[in-house]
Write a structure and sequence with these properties.
By secondary structure, the chain is α+β, with helices and mostly antiparallel strands. The chain has helices at residues 19-35, 37-64, 88-115, 121-141, 149-158, 162-183, 187-204; strands at residues 5-10, 13-18, 70-74, 77-81. The chain has a 4-stranded mixed sheet with strand order 1-2-3-4. β1 (5-10) and β2 form a beta hairpin. α2 crosses α4, α3 (88-115) packs antiparallel against α5 (149-158) and α5 runs antiparallel to α6 (162-183). The longest helix is centred in the N-terminal third of the chain and has 28 residues, at 37-64. The two termini are 24 Å apart. The relative contact order is 0.09.
């Protein structure tokens, strides 16, 4: 094991998790610890599980088309990668698989909450946080913004490269930042999409920024 990196294999797919991935989760969920440390622990499980489900959606789609994928979780994001070339149609399915699977898991959590009575409070907290994160983050990931999955889907469907998709992504990211900041007062989310607006602006100019 490399220093600071946890490595394991699940369903035959290698997974690497960098230590700062959990630090990022703690930073985002720190407020829950002020109320109850068990809620913070639940949040960390939700944080990790929601990312893994999302990336395994991509990874299984890669494998469906003959690839041998791997998954990396680091900082505030994760990704599934695979060597090889895929058709535009396959790229659409691969990109869509992550957020779609994540949203389906989130919906299932909410359905359980609504259908089962007498759920233990901490289990209820887990299901609510898990459902909320999966549905919201899965939905936001489908926005046509690079490097989010929606941007990759648009890029594959359009077939004209990153520059025109970057223009669409820039406008969409600005709108998302304004809505999150002004309407929902979620300033960290607004800052994140503001950064993505800049990334997409640069890509519309033919300059790639790796994040």
């Amino acid at each position: 094991m490399d220093k600071g990196i946890v490595r394991f294999s699940l369903f035959g797919i290698p997974v690497s998790i960098h230590w700062f991935f959990w630090v990022a989760g703690l930073l985002l969920g720190a407020g829950l610890g002020d109320r109850d440390m068990k809620l913070l622990l639940i949040w960390m499980v939700v944080w990790t599980l929601s990312f893994l489900i999302h990336e395994f959606g991509h990874a299984f789609a890669y494998r469906r088309y003959g690839g041998q994928p791997w998954i990396v979780l680091q900082s505030f994001y994760g990704y599934a990668a695979c060597n090889g070339r895929f058709t535009r149609g396959q790229q659409v399915v691969i990109s869509a698989a992550g957020p779609v699977v994540e949203i389906l898991f989130g919906v299932a959590a909410f359905l359980i909450l609504g259908a089962v009575e007498g759920i233990q409070p901490y289990v209820r907290s887990f299901l609510f946080l898990f459902g909320y994160i999966c549905v919201v983050w899965g939905g936001l990931n489908l926005l046509p913004i690079l490097p989010l999955d929606g941007g990759r889907i648009l890029e594959a469907l359009w077939g004209k490269g990153e520059r025109p998709v970057g223009k669409v992504g820039m406008v969409t990211a600005v709108i998302a930042a304004v809505v999150l900041g002004v309407v929902f007062k979620f300033f960290l989310g607004a800052l994140f999409f503001g950064f993505l607006a800049y990334v997409n602006y640069k890509r519309s100019q033919g300059v790639s920024i790796n994040i």
